[in-house]
Every structure is written in C-alpha cells, then in structure tokens.
Amino acid sequence: MLEKFFVHGGTPLVGTVRVNGSKNAALPILYSVLLTRGTTVLHNIPPLCDVTSTLELLADLGVKSGRRPDGALELEVVKEDGFEAPYELVRKMRASIYALGPLLAKRGRARVSRPGGCNIGVRPIDLHLKGMLALGARIANEQGYVVAEAPYLTGRRIYLGGASGSTVSGTANVIMAAALARGTTVIDHAACEPEIVDLANYLNACGAGIAGAGTPVVTIEGVRELHGSEYRVMSDRIEAGTFMIGAALTAGDVRVEGARFEHLAALIDALEAAGVSLQVEDDAVHVTSDGDFRPVDVTALPYPGFPTDLQSQITVLLSLAGGISVVTEKIYPDRFIHVAELNRLGANIRKEGNLAIIHGVERLSGAPVMASDLRASACLVLAGLVADGVTEINRIYHIDRGYHRIEESLKELGAVIDRVPADADSALLSLSPAASPALREKLVEYLRSATSF
Ligand code: EPZ
Known about the structure:
Blueprint: E1 3-8, E2 14-18, H1 23-32, E3 36-37, E4 39-43, H2 49-60, E5 63-67, E6 73-77, E7 84-85, H3 87-90, H4 100-107, E8 109-113, H5 126-134, E9 138-142, E10 145-149, E11 157-159, H6 168-178, E12 184-188, H7 194-205, E13 209-211, E14 217-221, E15 226-227, E16 230-232, H8 237-249, E17 253-257, H9 261-273, E18 277-280, E19 284-288, E20 298-300, H10 311-318, E21 324-329, H11 337-344, E22 348-352, E23 355-359, E24 368-370, H12 374-386, E25 390-394, H13 397-400, H14 406-412, E26 416-421, H15 426-429, H16 437-449
Parallel strand pairs: 2-17, 3-15, 4-16, 7-8, 11-12, 20-21, 24-25
Antiparallel strand pairs: 1-25, 1-26, 4-6, 5-6, 8-10, 9-10, 12-14, 13-14, 17-19, 18-19, 21-23, 22-23
Helix pairs in contact: 1-2, 1-7, 4-6, 5-6, 6-7, 8-9, 8-10, 8-12, 10-12, 11-12
Ligand EPZ binds at residues 24, 27, 94-95, 121-128, 162-164, 167-170, 191, 308-309, 331-332, 374-375, 402.
C-alpha cells in the first residue's frame, strides 16, 4: 500500500535517539556470507527493505537465514548451485552487484544484471569489472547481464581509482573475490569508508587475510576456505548524521547514540562552522542549536570527505542560513533532484552543474512534495520538520529502504509526523486513527485556514 507522511513543522527535536545498524555495512557483509562454510551470526543488522530484498536473493542462492529471538540474524550456505542476480531485483537495488565477487570466487561463475542508472546518477560498474578481469575472470555482457567465469582467481595488484575517485562497492567486490584467490591481491586507490573496514573485520573473523582496510592500499592474502563467524555490524553513520542535522535544523537538543566522531568528522566540522553546538562523546554526539545558521560551503567527497549521502540533508540547513552557501557534489554530479522540491517549500537554490548555490531564506513553507530517492526523501522529512504548516511527502517507500520507521524515531523526539495511506485526503486525516492527536489538532486548524492541497 502506497503511503505518505504528513509533517507539521515548528517543533524542536528534543531527547535521545539510538541509530540502527548500518545499511551500507550490512549489505556487503550479507553477500560475503556466500564465501563461507558454516554458520554466521550477525548482530545489529537493520530491519530495512533493502535487507529483506537481499535475504530473498541470498535464499535463491542457497543461503538459509532467520532472525533469532534476540534479533540476531543467523545465516548458513546450504546449497551452492545458483549464480544469478536477476534484473528484476538488481534494478531496484544496486547493491545486488555485491553478488558478483563472492559468486565468482566461491562458485566459479556469476550472472549479475547490470544495475542501470537511478535518480542520483549513472552508477557505472566498470571498476568492478576491471577488478574481476584483473583477478583472472572471463567477462561477457549478455542481454543486460554481466557473465563472469573463472575456475579459480589469482591475486595481483589492482588500481581501482576512477573518474570520481574510489568506489565503495567496487572495493568491496574485489576484497570479497580476492579473499579466496590464489596468492596476494593489493588494491591501490581503495575506498576508505568505514563500511569497508566493517566488511574486512567480518571476513577476517571468518579466517580471511585482509590488511589495510580503511586506507587507500588494501592487501588481501587469499585463503582456501572461510568459515562462518559471529559479528556485530557498525552503526549507521548516515542515519546518525541525518538525526544530527534534524536536531540542529529544528533548534533542538538531541543526543544521537551510535554516532561515532571518527565517522562523522566532516559533518561535525560543517555543523560547527554553521554555528551548531556539538559535544562529542565516546559513542554519541550531543547536538544543540539556536536555529540561526551561518552560511557554509560543503563539498561531497569520498571518505573521509563530507558524505554524499548527507549532501541533501545539509542543504536543508543551509537553505535557512543567513547568506550564500555553495554545495559541490564530486561523487554524483546530478544528485540534486531534491533542489526543485526544496524550492517548492520556499528555498532559494540554483543548480549550476555539480554545484547548488543556496541563498538562505527566512523560513520554509509546507506544501506537497515528492520523494525521489532514499536520501532526498530524508531531506524532505527534515524540511517538513522546520517548514511552517503541513508538508505532505509522497512516495515514502524510498525512505523505508534506508531508515527503519523514521517517523517513530522522530515522534519520540517530539516531531509532529504521521504515516498515512497515500489516498488519505487531508480533510479526512483529522478523522483517521493513523493521525496522532497532536497532528490531528494541528491539521484541523491548518485545514480551516488553508486551501486544499
Ligand atoms: C555506495 O554506493 C553507497 N551504497 C552509496 O549510498 C554512496 O552514496 C556511495 O557508496 C558513495 O559513498 C551502498 O553502500 C549500498 P561508489 P556505490 O561505487 O558503491 C563511480 C545510499 O544512499 N564509479 O563508491 O555504488 C560512481 O559513478 C547510497 O545509501 C565508477 O566510475 O558508490 C560514483 O561517481 C546511495 N565506476 C563514484 O564512483 C564504478 O565501477 C562512487 O561510487 C563504480 C563507481
């Protein structure tokens, strides 16, 4: 059933929120289970749509999985005769490309649909294929599928830098393939993201020989076999950053548990430059703000640069800063689909190539907007929290891919937000049991004063 959010802006976020396990760490780790023999137990795997889709694909590939009563996910490879990641799944979730490396290394064959593009960009896989070829695979392109074959893989030195710098999923795919290759593989210009470190930590717990993860040079000593292991996935630094920005945006006072300074230094630097107060603790960041922001220039870069996955969210805060800010997107030059929607809410942002030039405005004003991809949806929720009146956010299935019931976490921090059926006419909403009393009251007041959407 299609759903939407109604958000009534103006309430500061106050309290404590604990972020979930990292989607972008969990996905490659789940696929890397294909490399192992025996039982793996994973803690802190987030209950997200992308995780569910991944477990469905892994089940087709012979991986049995189930949640234990304590929430841990137990997985085991029970059959090894499949080798395909079909188009109908890959086109919905690019992360299915992570099946390439493990299937090739463990089963000698992989038939993975090319992911195609999405709202944030072209999403090529040339560097993935460069890595597999370097390890000795034969690669063919057949009806939109990559078909890779190799009776065995041989380690070697591979330069994995591309036009936009390093590749996270490309680095992960080569690490997974090299883990069972004969000999040593060295990846130059590897991605340094914390999610790569998490993958390496899990595989080393399974008996792999990976060194240098988190640095631009990663060395993988191939081994004959990998056993299962028990591992806790890192917390989601992008979810943490999203809540930190929401706290600042709404002039709130929020302690974000699970936020790690070393994963969020670039965001913390940008928020402090904008005038936000942050107290960094061991495993939390405490954010307070008066709601007045200085303009800041931000550039989205590979880690440890400012995360592209927080670019649209910080844009909301800068749209209310007292001056002109420039956001430069060096990873996905077209990742600005949120700009038009923010301008509908009264922002004054101009896209110039891979730049967003933001003239700060006094306030945003609620209106119906359209979510388009995961992080752009999060940006619209943040905008709704601070816009005057009610913001209706449609197509919120995008946000459920990367945030678990975000509206519940925000409600606990005081936000006035409700998830309702997409056809819930705003006039009926006040009667809907789905609407929280606070929203119902504010909405009836709003409906009395506003024209219909
Ligand atoms: C991962 O995507 C994340 N997804 C993305 O998060 C994130 O935005 C991205 O890394 C960058 O940090 C997951 O981890 C599931 P890349 P990925 O390969 O691995 C170019 C989210 O919202 N490139 O690091 O697909 C590419 O075009 C998602 O959670 C090539 O040129 O990104 C881009 O410009 C969105 N050739 C740059 O590299 C290749 O073969 C970085 O892409 C591969 C990538």
